[in-house]
Amino acid sequence: MNLLDSFADAIPTFTGGIIAWAATTFAYRSKERTSRRREAADAIVLRLDELMRLVRKWDRDAGGARWLEVTEAALNAIEAETHRLPMSWRHLRRSVRAAIGEATGTMAFADRLVHDSNTAVPAPCPIWSTNAEEYFCYALARLRSWRDADPITARRVQPLHDFDVWLRERNSTPGLRELVRG
Question: Which of 34, 74, 91, 150 has the fewest beta carbons closer than 10 A?
């Protein structure tokens, strides 16, 4: 057996090794991306869900310190994970701030305010508290779908509209309000 024959015999083994290495690397990186995506979504979902529940219980849980704490936690969770969100969703913190700001005013700046137990929360406006709650439901549904998606479909994310765009579309589309709540 000459050197050329030995080299020819080694090519399939070498090629197989490269393919195995590439497949293993791809699988590992895919698993890591999925894990980081799920961690990011879980962190945001937990805090955004808490904020949505506070909006729903406005008349029973209206302490200013509680509002500041929950709103700040939600905004900070989103800020901490924004780099992992799909590029088109990077507005989420601004949109949550807008939704809560329309409903409560200054509570939208909870991450910038000093927490004071004497902070007053305005009386709820039924329209704007409903808008905030429904936007949070919409955002939570999108986040949960993204979190639970397999690695292939996670790249084709559903749109997550900015609060103002969502509000405009919801108000101009008959029956959309029922779909959002559904």
Answer: 150
